[in-house]
Amino acid sequence: MTIRVLIVDDQMMVREGFSVLLNAMPDIEVIGEAVNGREAVTKVAELAPDVVLMDIRMPELNGIEATREIVAAHSESKVLVLTTFDLDEYVYQALRAGASGFLLKDASARQLADGVRVVAAGEALLAPTVTRRLITEFSKLSQTPRPPALAQVGELTERETEVLVLIAQGLSNAEIASRLVVAESTIKTHVSRVLVKLGLRDRTQAAVFAYEARLVTPG
């Protein structure tokens, strides 16, 4: 199936460049563009894209607020945040708003296409070069666990909690299966149950939750 993409950025050259790169892929089609967050919300409602490539810093409505509105109203559209800065203080907020991951704008054409595919498939995407810095942001912004988070953790089994921690550490299903010496299909089941019990959209939100609940600490 073709992955339908909406590109949101206030710079025309960026939008056009990404459009050319993605339309060159046989399984990806750019179905629209938006110049700010407000227009993005409207376009998502009209076009129902599979993936929204979302810039953070834009006029009228920034990428964080636009992501929050899109996720709340259109759960089937996944948001992949694009940022110029690997130290962008807003990345953490974007993930909390419901973004499925983020990628630096200097990513290669292959990395961009692969990122779209990963997010479209419901997986998390965290650019390797910024993951450690993102964890530092978790450390700054989540010094203590939120009471609701603690209450929800209690609903997980011991094995589900273990899987949640490994997700937050960046391990794939295959890597978690190898670590716990079980079948990958078993891990997929555990991941699904974790997401349902915690009311989360995807692995990215699961990682955010694990840090906020202090199940994982930076280091």
TrEMBL record:
InterPro entries: CheY-like_superfamily, NreC/VraR/RcsB-like_REC, Sig_transdc_resp-reg_C-effctor, Sig_transdc_resp-reg_receiver, Tscrpt_reg_LuxR_C, WalR-like. GO terms for biological process: phosphorelay signal transduction system; regulation of DNA-templated transcription. Pfam families: GerE, Response_reg. Residues 149-214 form the HTH luxR-type domain. Residues 4-120 form the Response regulatory domain. The modification 4-aspartylphosphate is found at D55. Keywords: DNA-binding, Phosphoprotein, Transcription, Transcription regulation. One of its GO terms (molecular function) is DNA binding. It comes from the Bacteria. SMART domains: HTH_LUXR, REC. This is DNA-binding response regulator.
